[in-house]
Records
---
Amino acid sequence: MDPLIDRNTGSVHLDKQWTLTPGLSVEHLANLIGNRLSGTDRVTRWFSHIPVKTLVGDFNLTLVFSGEVLMAMRAQPKIDYKSNEIDTKAKMDAMLNKLLGPPTNERFVVSSEIARTLFRIVRMEWPKGAKELTWELSWGRVISSVDSKDVVPEFKLQWKI
């Protein structure tokens, strides 16, 4: 089976029948994602909480469309009850490094004491060393970070359309 993310094309291989490529239409994905429109802001609409199983793990996906065209996806790994968010982020980063090579940019997830205080308010203590990693590629960008609302690890893929 193909790798989760194809470094050369930006295709995301979720399973044998389902591959995401830049510019797919809502109509093309309708049978796979169902009619679960989660939100819209007139120009952008998104479908969230789509469970998928891949060879590298289980994820909850959010697919983001500009008009009718797929422009981005967000994947949050399902966290095993034996592990925690920090371990899950480290495993996700290792997987992305293996697939995409070294990141082109790094910055700390918790970059200031103010941000650290905000994380503590939601009862999540991220270590000072936790980093947001970015890969700039010819077809788009991949960002490994932490969802600021749910405080769980995630990676986002944004295609150049």
---
Amino acid sequence: MEHTKKVIHFCLWIIAAIFILPCVFVASAFYPKWVEWGEEF
């Protein structure tokens, strides 16, 4: 049972990484454009 908890915990971390890492990449890629748009306002 203890081994199963560790596997489930690991899978949850993988799922979180699949969602979070692309968001971080997109945010870092578009951040300079957000700064430019902010200066226009």
---
Amino acid sequence: MCQHIVILAERNGQQYISQCEHGTVHLIWDGVGLHLSAEAFNRLAAHILKTRANILELGDSVSQGHCRICVGKLSLILPVEDFLLMVEMIDEVMPQVNLTGNGQYHPSVRITPPNQLIPPVLN
């Protein structure tokens, strides 16, 4: 169980990226969480950043589209607008992700306990 969480970037209580003392990067987006090793997160982030470049190249023709992020058997479909917000956050944290998992972090990041999130209600 994670005891020390470093919030690397946060947009609101439901959209943030953190890293724990185990080196796991936690990407939380609207209550959906991806919990990846730092290396796996970096591979996913590189692909996501490349996808952003492709989207920006296409311009307005894809502004009403959706992006699908697949990790293992999990698929997350986001409107392009939300995807681009997520990419901004990912781009922001890339220099801060601790690849060694040794608990040593840049002094500008803050350590906070994880927020209690209200689980979504599915009907």
